[in-house]
Amino acid sequence: MSVDEIVILATPIFGAPVSAEHVARIESVPGVRVVQMSSDGLVHDHAEEALAAARVLLRGGVPASVLDHVIGRAPRLAWIHSFSAGVDRVATPVVRTRGLTVTNARGVFSRPIAEYVVMMSLAISRSLPQLLELQQERTWQPLRGTELGSKTIGIVGFGSIGSEIARLLAPFGTRILATRRHPDRGAGDQPNVELLGLDELGELLRQSDITVIAAPLTDETAGMIGAAQLQEMPEHAWLINIARGRLIDELALRRALEAGWIGGAVLDVFNEEPLPSDSPLYDTPNLIVTPHTSWSSDRVVDRSIDLFVANLRRFAAGGQLENVVDLEAGY
User: Fold this and answer.
1) Angle ∠(43,48,52) on CA atoms, nearest 5
2) Per-residue confidence band for 329, with pLDDT thresholds at 50, 70 and 90
3) Whole-angstrom distance, CA of residue 160 vs CA of residue 313
4) DSSP-based three-state secondary structure for 219
5) Distance CA 298, CA 109 (A)
6) Region 114-131: what's the mean pLDDT?
7) Is CATH 1.10.10.1100 correct for 110-289?
8) Which of residues 331 and 224 earns the better pLDDT score?
9) What percent of the chain has pLDDT above 90?
10) Which helix H or strand E contains 163, and what residues bound it?
11) Is-catalytic flag, 76?
12) Distance separating alpha carbons of residues 294 and 242, to the nearest angstrom
C-alpha cells in the first residue's frame, strides 16, 4: 500500500455494502483504493494497515460510537463524507476535536422527498385518507376536496429539500411560506415563496394549511414543535415531518390529534426507528405513518456516488470540497 494512495474506508450504505460497480467508479479516480468496512466497524482487508493509511471515510449507517472508534484508529483520516443529508450522527465530539472535514449528501434526496410531500399534500387536499376509510367500510359517501392552489403550505427550513418542495408546488399555484436562518438571501427564482425568519415560526404555523418540517436536527431545533406550537395551528391544518423525529414532541402530537387541535399529521421519521410494532402512534387518529421512506428512489444511490466521486477528484487535486458542513451550525 503506497503512502501516496488515498485509502477510503467505506461503510454499508442504505443497508448494503458498496457494490462492485460503485467501488469501480470510485477507484476510477487515480491513486484511490476502497476498503470495505462492516457496520460494526470491522475491517477485514489488511485491517490495521488500512486503518493506519485511511484518508477518507465514506459513512453510511454506522452508529456514532463505531464512527468514533474507527476515527481513533485512523490517524491520517482527513475527510468524512456522509451519505445522509443530516449530520447529527456524524458531528461527534471526536470529529470536532480532530478538526475533520465533513461533507454531506445535500441535494441527493431533495427530489424524492419533495415528491413525497407533494403526494401527501394532494392526498390531504383530496381527502384520500377519509376515502380509503370509506372504502374499507364499504360506504358510498362522496367527499368534496380542495385544490392546492387555494392552500398555504409552510416549510420549516428552506434548504435544498425545502426549496425543491416549493419548486414542485409552484405549478399548482400554492402559496408558500418558509422559514430560513437568513431570509435576506431570498428564495432564488421562486416568486411563490415568502420567506420568514426563524423567530417567525409562530406566524408560519398560524397561516399554513399544511406545515412541512424540513429543518436539520440541531441543539436549537430539537423539540421545536411541541404543544404550544401545535395549538397555534388552525384546527383543519396538517403537519408533515420528513426531517428528523426529534424535531417534534411525539407525545404532544398524539394528544393534539386525539383532542382535535389539528386536522392530521404525516410522519416519515420518528424518535425511535424502526418504530416498534406496539407504538401508540400506529393507532393515533388522523395520523399517517410511513417507514422513513420519503428519501427512497431508484436514483439516489447513483446520485450519491456521483456526488462523492466529484468531490473525491477535488480532494485528490487538493481543491475545495463541495457540501462542506458547518459543524457548529449542524448543517
Assistant:
1) 110
2) confident
3) 23
4) coil
5) 11
6) 97
7) no
8) 224
9) 82
10) helix 160-169
11) no
12) 7
Place of cell 425511535: 272
Triad 232, 263, 245: Cα angle to 5°: 75
Phi, psi of 140 (to 5 degrees): -95, 105
Return the number of other C-beta atoms located less than 10 Å from residue 49's C-beta: 13
- Catalytic option among 21, 49, 147, 273: 273
106, 167, 244, 254: which is the annotated catalytic residue? 244
Mean pLDDT of 27-32: 96
Nearest-CA neighbor of 3 among 70, 76, 61?
A: 76
Q: Evaluate if pTM is beyond 0.90.
A: yes
273 is catalytic: yes
Q: Which residues contact 240 (CB under 8 A, 6 or more apart)?
A: 117, 120, 121, 210, 211, 212, 213, 265, 266, 268
| Pairwise CA distance, residues 194 & 246, whole Å | 26
Active site residue 182: no
Of the candidates 73, 292, 303, 313, the residue annotated as catalytic is: 292
Distance in angstroms (rounded) separating the CA atoms of residues 31 and 16: 25
- Domain chopping of the chain, boundaries: 6-108+298-316, 110-289
> CATH assignment of 6-108+298-316?
3.40.50.720
Residue with cell 404550544: 228
Cα(148)–Cα(173) distance, integer angstroms: 7
Question: What secondary structure does DSSP assign to 117-156, as a single string?
Answer: HHHHHHHHHTTHHHHHHHHHTT---------GGG-EEEEE
Radius of gyration of the chain (CA): 22
Query: What's the rounded Cα separation, in Å, for the pair 38 and 86?
Result: 21
CB 247 within 8 A of CB 221: yes
Beta-strand pair 210-213/193-196: unpaired
> How far apart (Å, rounded) are the C-alpha atoms in residues 209 and 200?
16
**Gap between the Cα atoms of 196 and 192, Å rounded:** 13
Peptide bond into 274 cis (omega under 30): yes
